[in-house]
Amino acid sequence: MDKRKKLIKDYSYLLWYVKEDAKEKINDDILVEMILTNGDWQAFQRLVDLLGMKKVSEIFFKQISRSRNNYRKQTRHFFTLYFNRHDS
Length: 88
Prior knowledge:
The protein is mainly α. It has one domain (3-86). 64% of the residues lie in helices and 0% in strands. The chain is globular and about 35 Å long.
């Protein structure tokens, strides 16, 4: 099983709204949002290992630039600071 499938399988409860057979087909945007909004630190580290800090950061900033997004204020603030410091 590849890293992506294993990550999705291990945290599939975060995708409660997605049908089981569709979970492995989610795109990177959904995966990043899923982990950053409701995952734990280990999930975040595995996500960065899978996609790379640069890509996770780019997806996050693209998502929060929209007028409507699913990130809580504290989550947006934390990851904005984190990515600005670690993805330079």
